[in-house]
Design goal:
Length: about 325
């Protein structure tokens, strides 16, 4: 068995060669470090300018995303140039080619994240809604937009919860923006008695609705007959309020209360469905004979003799026996 001859001199020679290489690269490392720091400060400065410009244009979310992208892009560029200075054998073309191959692999690995990022950028550029708007997404979530980030849009629901929705879902599906306009219309169907005066009922509804504080006078409230029901004539009351959820909800409650009290005071009936059920214990004596039996209560005259249901059941039992 051969013995391994460990020569400490070779180890020290290798360490000495590494230290000589490090000392030779120190000027390059210093220049690369200075270059990277310069790029880092330039990136921060440009990002700050972009953020301030976007806020002056009332686009703070877009400014945050754009400044972040520019800052990171310049920082990566500075880092790549610094590497070429430390290692002169590497050219910028080699780094760009390597970055291209790496970006394909990264793209497959983080496909969902990149899709959400692209969707977030498009949302910020096209701005279908803004921070502070109240929206309803197709998944059923509804609330006020808190932030629009590159990955997701964050909304606060009306009951005080936070929902994080991927930007891809928002960009590809339908979104209802409740506060896109200053005014929003609400409506409610009210049934009045079939024998009541329609004109009086409509005028009473409109006057009561207009008297509510937060109901807008332009457009004015209106009451439109929409249905001749089986127990009531239906009138649709429509009115306009501010578009935020609080105004819509609270004003609707005030309108319904005012309209109910006004109709009641005017003596206009607001009927509700009624059902009448008749129970009887009599059938025809020919019960069971489909050719001769009669349904319901017997009338007067030459009618067949009625018999009780209990007797019919007893006869049927005897026949089976």
């Amino acid at each position: 068995m051969e013995e391994v001859d460990a020569n400490p001199g070779l180890i020290f020679d290798k360490l000495d060669a590494w230290l000589d290489g490090l000392f030779r690269l120190l000027p390059n490392i210093a220049v690369a470090l200075v270059l990277f720091i310069v790029f880092w400060f330039v990136a921060r400065g440009i990002g700050s300018i972009i953020r301030k410009s976007a806020r002056h244009r009332d686009r703070p979310s877009l400014g945050d995303v754009a400044s972040s992208l520019v800052r990171w892009s310049l920082t990566v560029l500075g880092f790549m140039l610094a590497i070429t200075i430390v290692a002169p054998s590497l050219s910028p073309g080699d780094l760009i080619a390597g970055l291209g191959v790496s970006s394909v692999a990264i793209g497959f690995a983080f496909k969902d994240i990149l899709q959400n990022m692209l969707a977030g950028i498009l949302i910020l550029l096209r701005q279908p809604f803004a921070v502070g708007d109240q929206i309803v997404v197709s998944s059923g979530h509804e609330g006020t937009v808190e932030r629009i980030e590159t990955r997701a849009t964050i909304i606060k629901t009306y009951d005080g919860r936070r929902v994080v929705i991927p930007n891809t879902d928002i960009y590809t599906d339908s979104v209802v923006v409740n506060t896109a306009f200053d005014k929003r219309r609400s409506q409610y169907d009210i049934g009045v008695g079939c024998n009541d005066d329609w004109a009086l009922a409509r005028k009473t509804m409109i006057d009561a609705c207009a008297s509510v504080e937060n109901v807008l006078s332009d457009p004015t409230p209106e009451a439109i007959p929409v249905d001749l029901g089986d127990f009531a004539n239906v009138i649709r009351l429509r009115w306009w309020t501010a578009s935020d959820q609080s105004s819509v909800r609270h004003t609707k409650g005030e309108v319904l209360q005012a309209v109910y009290q006004a109709l009641d005071k005017a003596g206009i009936d607001m009927p509700y469905p009624t059902h009448v059920q008749l129970f009887h214990d009599q059938t025809d004596e020919h019960d069971g004979d489909r050719a001769r039996q009669r349904e319901g209560w017997p009338t007067t005259g030459n009618d067949p003799k009625p018999k009780r249901i209990a007797d019919a059941m007893a006869d049927a039992g005897k026949q089976r026996a």
